[in-house]
Every structure is written in structure tokens, then in C-alpha cells.
Automatic annotation (TrEMBL):
Residues 32-257 form the L-type lectin-like domain. The chain crosses the membrane at residues 304-326. This is L-type lectin-like domain-containing protein. Gene3D superfamilies: 2.60.120.200.
């Protein structure tokens, strides 16, 4: 083999090694980046009972070995569970496995679950068992239609809200005035578990749901221009009124996303950021961010990279084969002349 052949072979070996590294990154994504200090996982050992516990609960919340019941299917209950460790990750993804079920038929059930990433924790109030005028992010799984004028959407309805403490959640209007977006989803009384994922990365808030037992994420909300600080607390709360449901959290799994930031972003004190949303950003800023690792749909950016790498590898393999064939022909030619 000539110099060219050796070079091509070396390049191919190098590429195979790089490819293997990329593949490892994808398969390890979900388990290696799980942050146990922010995750609530069966059988919830020590939750609320021991001084070393990383979760605290309040109200009607009942912790069993297989679920955390925020409210039972009874009137006028409120309960919550909170991570006591502030989250200092800049880019994260929270996967929530939950179950809302009860004996109420048609629309005779309520009120729903709210998931929180807020400055304060364990602060009971009228918004699904948590305080109004909260500071941070709320994701609401609203199972009861309060606003009879808003018939253009079906319930349960999932929505998100970001507040710096100056905005009220209007329960009578199902929070419509303050929501950033949302989607309808049939999540009640399913035979299988239902999932919701909240991703916050590079100023982008994405909500995905998996409620059809197909192990596939469906996008619910995806907006840019969202500013959330580090150092807040994750929590979940639920409430019942005249109508009720069992509101169960099976697990909350927190994943760190590996994302590079600009030097300016690295210098900034992220604990000082005030929660806000700039809806005036250009559509260009709302293009898909190639990060994150939602269950079942691994890193789209990496996929593209992999595809390119495979294409490159294909070209190199062709070149090697070509070179070998060329050399063989040369040798044969030598024999003939
Ligand atoms: Ca409602």
C-alpha cells in the first residue's frame, strides 16, 4: 500500500474511534446525568422523615412505597412535595411520571397538579395548593374547566407560566391571561402511567408529554426568550375543591443537560436573574435547540452530527476500497508489462 493508503486507513481508524465516543455519549445520557439530589424515586426512602431527606411535604400529601399522593379523591384537599436542595444547574430537564385518577365522570373532577421551579418552597396557597404571585416557573396540569367562556379548548389542559411575583394566577379563568402556551391532553384515568417533561436550556422552555403509552414525546410548549435563575426549588402540588381526584406523583427525575455557554454567560451570576419571558424575540431565536435528551428521542443535534460522521466514514471507506483496487490494478499492470 502507498502513502495515500496508509493515510486513509489511519483516518478511518480515527473516525471509528470518534464515532464510538459519540455513541457512548448518547447511550449514557439519561443515566449518567441523572441528578439524584433533585430526583424523587421509588420507594422514596427517608422522604420527609430524616434530617438528611432531600424532599419535604405538606398538607394532604401521603407518601407510600409506590407513589406520592398529593391529594386523595376527596373534597377540599391540598398537598405538596418539595425538593429541599436548590438547583444550581443552568440547563436541566425534569421528567415527571404521574397519575390522575378518580371516580368522577366526565368533567366532574378537579382541580389538577402544578409543577414548580420557584424561589420559595412549601408556601401553601390558592394555586393548586401553592402560593399565588410566586416567583419562577409553574407548569399546570389543569383538569377542571373553570372558565365557561373558554370553550375553544378541551380539558385537561396543560400550560406554563413564568412570573417575577407581580402576576396573579386567575383560577376563574384557568390562568389563561398569564399562560405562555399549552395543550390539551387526555391524562385522567389511564391504565398506564403518564409522563411530562420540562426542559430549560439556553433560554428555551420546552414541555413534552407522553400520555398514550407509546413511549413517544409529544410537544406541548416550545418557546424561547425565557429567563430563569439557578438556586430555585423544584416542587409539585395539587388541590381538590368541590370536585376531586387522586393526584399521584410516581417519580420526578432530574437530568443535567451538557450545554456550552458563552464566556459572558459563564461570568454572569445566574442566581441574580429575574424570571422573565421576552415574547418579542424574532422567530429566528425560536428555532429548535439541538440539546436535551427527552425519553425516547435522544439528542437531535448529535443525530445530525452522527449522520454527517457516517457519511464521511462512507466516503473514506469508498476511498480506501478505491485505493486498494487502484493499487491491485497497478500491480497487475506491472505483471503484464
Ligand atoms: Ca381550572
Amino acid at each position: 500500500m502507498g502513502h495515500f493508503g496508509v493515510f486513509v486507513r489511519a483516518a478511518a481508524v480515527l473516525l471509528v474511534f470518534q464515532l464510538r465516543e459519540v455513541l457512548c455519549d448518547i447511550t449514557d445520557g439519561n443515566t449518567e446525568h441523572l441528578k439524584r439530589e433533585h430526583s424523587l424515586i421509588k420507594p422514596y426512602q427517608g422522604v420527609g422523615n430524616s434530617p438528611s431527606s432531600q424532599w419535604d411535604f405538606w398538607g394532604s400529601t401521603l407518601v407510600t412505597s409506590s407513589y406520592v399522593r398529593l391529594t386523595s379523591d376527596e373534597k377540599s384537599k391540598q398537598g405538596s412535595i418539595w425538593n429541599t436542595v436548590p438547583c444550581h444547574l443552568k440547563d436541566w430537564e425534569m421528567h415527571v411520571q404521574f397519575k390522575i385518577h378518580g371516580s368522577g365522570r366526565k368533567s366532574l373532577h378537579g382541580d389538577g397538579i402544578a409543577l414548580w421551579y420557584t424561589k420559595d418552597k412549601l408556601h401553601p396557597g390558592p394555586v393548586f395548593g401553592n402560593q399565588d404571585q410566586f416567583i419562577g416557573l409553574a407548569v399546570v396540569v389543569d383538569t377542571f374547566r373553570n372558565d365557561l367562556h373558554g370553550m375553544d379548548r378541551s380539558f385537561p389542559f396543560i400550560s406554563a407560566m413564568v412570573s417575577n411575583g407581580s402576576v396573579n394566577y386567575d383560577h376563574g379563568k384557568d390562568g389563561r391571561a398569564s399562560e405562555l402556551g399549552g395543550c390539551s391532553a387526555e391524562i385522567r384515568n389511564k391504565d398506564h402511567d403518564t409522563y411530562l417533561a420540562i426542559r430549560y436550556s439556553k433560554g428555551r422552555l420546552t414541555l413534552m408529554i407522553d400520555v398514550e403509552d407509546k413511549n413517544e414525546w409529544r410537544e406541548c410548549i416550545d418557546i424561547g426568550g425565557v429567563r430563569l435563575p439557578t438556586g430555585y426549588f423544584f416542587g409539585a402540588s395539587a388541590a381538590t375543591g368541590d370536585l376531586s381526584d387522586n393526584h399521584d406523583i410516581i417519580s420526578m427525575k432530574m437530568y443535567q443537560l451538557m450545554v456550552e455557554h458563552t464566556p459572558e454567560e459563564e461570568i454572569e451570576d445566574w442566581t441574580k436573574i429575574e424570571p422573565s419571558v421576552s415574547l418579542l424575540k424574532s422567530p429566528k431565536d425560536n428555532i429548535d435547540d439541538p440539546t436535551g435528551n427527552f425519553r425516547g428521542t435522544p439528542l437531535t443535534g448529535w443525530k445530525v452530527f452522527l449522520l454527517l460522521l457516517c457519511a464521511l466514514l462512507g466516503i473514506v471507506v469508498c476511498a480506501v476500497v478505491g485505493a486498494v483496487v487502484f493499487q491491485k490494478r497497478q500491480e497487475r499492470n506491472k505483471r503484464f508489462y
